[in-house]
């Protein structure tokens, strides 16, 4: 009975259409507070942040006061929110009506203090910066203000101290993708041209993405493919396996980018740094494949190539092994004139011995065979034999010359391959260190 009598007493002659003050010059101060319960979604493409907050506000209603002694010492009562005056406090960044549960009642104390507590699913516009993805920190504001009343009618204040609001994670769900760092508060007066001032209370919700999932699913596979590309340089350049190996890596990286394209955030404003990282890695793989094709082309089909120029020999076969600290520098700086001359003499002797049917290793064998003597030097048979021997000798010299040219180009190819590999390795290391430093600073 006391609750019913009190409710009838308060609402019998209550006018909810006007601001509840006895003197119109009195400003109604609304104290507001919020606690972040969960980060539901972050839509980078549409620049929308969806959060779930516990919102609280209280103000003084001068027409909702009573003496507790008259009503069985009741000091607090719940009344329907539709039956009393409620301030028009809205969030400026609202872009859509969320699925917020409806709380139909408010608490009223005997001093006239009204407490309106309700959970709200907030879908707000936010300027999301994804350049540092997946190590990004987002700062989104929730601006509470009266849409109609200026600051002389409705003023805003904080329910709690700013330090208590800043580090309050008592109700935050901490198992999602985003981590709540802190909530900053700021009060300001807002004026549009020559109109009256409006009170605004800003809450800056600062959140940070947990990068473990993206590190495992995006960065590590890319790093593994780049490591395999570097290891592929240890395949011999004169074998055709290196080209097919690097083409396979390039195709695998292309498939990897197609798979992860849906995971990367997409905006019309900018591109995340990790997207640039993937593009540069693809470019490095293309450069590596191009270098491999050039080296393989250099060390193959040397028969159609001229002699190695002297400046190339000087730079790549004499200077480069010293600068690159190649241990077996002798094999790059020496040619094979002595070995080639010896092989020429051996081959010429063997070929001459095989072609001359009258030559014998032991003179007594010749006497036993027939006692005949070799034909004279001026006979046609001797001239024919000499022409054949000369042709074989020229052929062997030409073949040995081709071998020397091929050997020189092969040496040039090996030295150039080592030089380009180390330059490529330095570029990859510098790129990795730069990205690691930037991400560690942002982290």
UniProtKB/TrEMBL annotation:
Domain Neurotransmitter-gated ion-channel transmembrane intervals: 218-434
One Gene Ontology MF term: extracellular ligand-gated monoatomic ion channel activity
Cellular component annotations (GO), alphabetically ordered: postsynaptic membrane
Record-annotated membrane-spanning stretches: 212-235, 247-268, 274-296, 423-442
Nuclease among keywords: no
The UniProt record lists the keyword Cell membrane: yes
Annotated InterPro entries: 5HT3_rcpt, 5HT3_rcpt_A, LGIC_TM_5-HT3, Neur_chan_lig-bd, Neur_chan_lig-bd_sf, Neur_channel, Neuro-gated_channel_TM_sf, Neuro_actylchol_rec
Keywords per UniProt: Cell membrane, Disulfide bond, Glycoprotein, Ion channel, Ion transport, Ligand-gated ion channel, Membrane, Postsynaptic cell membrane, Receptor, Signal, Synapse, Transmembrane, Transmembrane helix, Transport
Membrane association type: Multi-pass membrane protein
Top-level division of the source organism's lineage: Eukaryota
Locations listed in the record: Postsynaptic cell membrane
One Pfam assignment: Neur_chan_memb
Residues in Neurotransmitter-gated ion-channel ligand-binding domain copies: 4-211
Known catalytic reactions: K(+)(in) = K(+)(out); Na(+)(in) = Na(+)(out); Mg(2+)(in) = Mg(2+)(out); Ca(2+)(in) = Ca(2+)(out)
Record function comment: Forms serotonin (5-hydroxytryptamine/5-HT3)-activated cation-selective channel complexes, which when activated cause fast, depolarizing responses in neurons.
Family: Belongs to the ligand-gated ion channel (TC 1.A.9) family. 5-hydroxytryptamine receptor (TC 1.A.9.2) subfamily. HTR3A sub-subfamily.
Assembly and oligomerization: Forms homopentameric as well as heteropentameric serotonin-activated cation-selective channel complexes with HTR3B or HTR3C or HTR3D or HTR3E. The homomeric complex is functional but exhibits low conductance with modified voltage dependence, and decreased agonist and antagonist affinity. Heteropentameric complexes display properties which resemble that of neuronal serotonin-activated channels in vivo. Interacts with RIC3.
Record's protein name: 5-hydroxytryptamine receptor 3A
Gene: Htr3a_1
